[in-house]
Amino acid sequence: MSYTGDVVSGGPSDRRDLAHLTIRKASVGTTANNVYLLTCPRTGAQLLIDAADNPARIMRLLGEGGGPLDIIVTTHQHWDHHRALAQVVASTNVATTAAGAADADALPVPPTRRLAHGDTLEFGDITLGVIHLRGHTPGSVALVYDDPQGNTHLWTGDSLFPGGVGNVEMNPDRFASLLADVQTRIFDVYDDATWVYPGHGADTTLGAERPHLQEWRERGW
Prior knowledge:
- The chain is of the alpha/beta class.
- It has helices at about 55-65, 85-90, 170-185, 205-210, 215-220, and strands at about 15, 20-30, 35-40, 45-50, 70-75, 95-100, 115, 120-125, 125-130, 140-145, 150-155, 160, 165, 195-200, 205.
C-alpha cells in the first residue's frame, strides 16, 4: 500500500505500515485538521493525535484500527485541534488523555497526563517521545517515534509545517522561541530522513525543510 499523506477533509484516510506501527491519517473540519491514529499491530493498542472535529469521522477512523483506544494526545490548546475531544472521550472511555502542561487548563477535557519535554507515552509495544516546542502556544508538543527498522517519524501539531514554523501572530519573541526549539530539539537531533506529519496539510521531511532554516529566520515568521 503506497502512502502519500494527501488527504481531504471528510475523505478517506491514508495508511502507512511500518514494521511495528501502523499510521492512519485523516482530515476533518472546515480548517482541514489532520487527525492521526497510531496502532500497534501486535497488540491492537491505539493512540489518537488531535480529536480535532467531526467526532463521527474520528470514530470511523478508530474502527479502521480495530483495537481499543488507549491514549488521546492533544498537540496544543487551539480550538480547532480539540473540537471533538469531549465527544470522543465520552464515546470511547479512553483511559488516558494527554497534553502539554502549559496548555492543559485550556482544554475542554482536563488531561489525565500533563506532558513535559522528554516524557514518553507507551501503548502496546510502542514508545513515543514528547518534545515541548514553545511559541505557537506555551504548551505545544510534538511526538516522535524512532522506528527500530527504519526512519524517525515526527508529529508536530502546528509547530512545524512544510515551508516554516507555526503561526506566532507576528510576535518576535514567540517566533524566536519557536524557531530555537525547532532548531535545537528537532533539526539538531534528527536526520534528514525524518518524516514530519503536521497538524494541517501535506507531510514533509526534515531534509526538505533544513535548507530553509536561515530563510525562515531572516523573514521572521
